[in-house]
């Protein structure tokens, strides 16, 4: 084994172990809350010693920050990978929303860390959550802008207005994900359908009996 | 002066003073955050002594709880008073949204206490904020239900679906109020118009050049 390969062999387990620690931390913090979560419990759930958690992630605050950042990256990657660039605008929106609600369902602890815990335990974490949310908003604004351009709606919809619509859509999605977390009978498909009905067809169409399809 | 009148005379200033303390607390907590806000600062802003604040509101936690409850009551009253029961459904929604964005604009500190501070400082306050939000959701669900009934859309829209639409609408409104708080150029009317376009006309209509009017 060359020197380089040995270094790589030592490094791989580190990345893997760090991933295990973050998985454990997200699980413990998502379920019991940041305040109640102890480093002992997180180390045990990760199957490592507590000093090793401190060695890798330095402090409970740094571990929490790393969890928030990783969950945000995972969510954004899931959405952007799901959206087919060549689909029609409503198809892109549907795929993106479905990916979002699936993330919130399958990684329920991650979603709680990102949306609830990061906003519940003081301002540095809340600011980080805002920064991560701004990235999602940017993505959604771009998606709506290309949708409007495809339909030649850019004559009517300015950048400022499209940003406003993105804020409305993201807020509606967050609210429905919170609802789904409280009601296990609600599937990601059901939430995505409700939001497509709301956001695409609009209440005006809905009360008149229309539906998005 | 009879005994009863004397009691009433002593009681009136108490209610008034308590209101002043809450006003001051909302201002200080809304601007500097719950953690940074001191009872000294709140007492000074209210023009009373610190022991008097403790006598009336017992603790910083109790004072904060009273602030959250009062702001939620004020917001709900503003919305429900604005909605004319005999207006068409979209007119009712417009009035309700305008009242909401006006509250968030005129009582910016109150909105920050309710929506940001109550969710940023631990779970008992976050739970209270959720309870208050559930009341708003109930009101909006009832409004959408009567809108659907008026348009005979109840054949198509079940209770569960209407609750989902209410969650979407409330989440969208919160998100736009947060945006408006960060951008002083955005008026309550502009935010209400964006949300009516989004929620009533829908993105499908908007990209095709439609607007709510």
UniProtKB/TrEMBL annotation, chains A, B:
Official protein name in the record: TetR/AcrR family transcriptional regulator
Pfam families named in the record: TetR_C_46 (PF21943), TetR_N (PF00440)
Alphabetical list of PANTHER family matching this protein: HTH-TYPE TRANSCRIPTIONAL REGULATOR RUTR, POSSIBLE TRANSCRIPTIONAL REGULATORY PROTEIN (PROBABLY TETR-FAMILY)
Gene3D superfamilies xref list: Tetracycline Repressor, domain 2
Organism of provenance: Streptomyces evansiae
Source lineage: Bacteria, Bacillati, Actinomycetota, Actinomycetes, Kitasatosporales
Alphabetically ordered keywords of this record: DNA-binding, Transcription, Transcription regulation
InterPro entries with a match to the protein in the record: DesT_TetR_C, Homeodomain-like_sf, HTH-type_TetR-like_transc_reg, HTH_TetR
Residue range(s) of DNA binding per entry: 38-57
Domain HTH tetR-type residues, every copy: 15-75
């Amino acid at each position: 084994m060359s020197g380089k390969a040995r270094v790589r062999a030592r490094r791989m387990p580190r990345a893997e172990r760090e991933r295990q620690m973050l998985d454990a931390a997200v699980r413990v913090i998502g379920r019991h809350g940041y305040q109640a979560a102890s480093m002992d419990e997180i180390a045990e759930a990760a199957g490592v010693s507590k000093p090793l958690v401190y060695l890798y992630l330095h402090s409970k605050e740094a571990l929490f920050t790393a969890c928030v950042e990783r969950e945000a990256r995972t969510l954004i990657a899931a959405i952007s990978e799901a959206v087919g660039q060549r689909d029609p605008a409503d198809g892109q929106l549907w795929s993106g929303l479905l990916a979002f609600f699936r993330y919130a369902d399958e990684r329920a602890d991650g979603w709680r860390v990102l949306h609830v815990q990061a906003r519940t335990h003081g301002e540095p974490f809340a600011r980080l959550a805002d920064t991560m949310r701004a990235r999602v908003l940017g993505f959604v604004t771009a998606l709506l802008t290309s949708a409007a351009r495809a339909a030649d709606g850019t004559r009517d919809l300015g950048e400022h207005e499209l940003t406003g619509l993105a804020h409305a859509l993201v807020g509606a999605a967050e609210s429905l994900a919170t609802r789904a977390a409280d009601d296990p009978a609600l599937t990601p498909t059901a939430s995505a359908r409700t939001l497509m009905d709301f956001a695409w067809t609009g209440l005006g169409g809905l009360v008149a009996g229309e539906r998005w399809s």
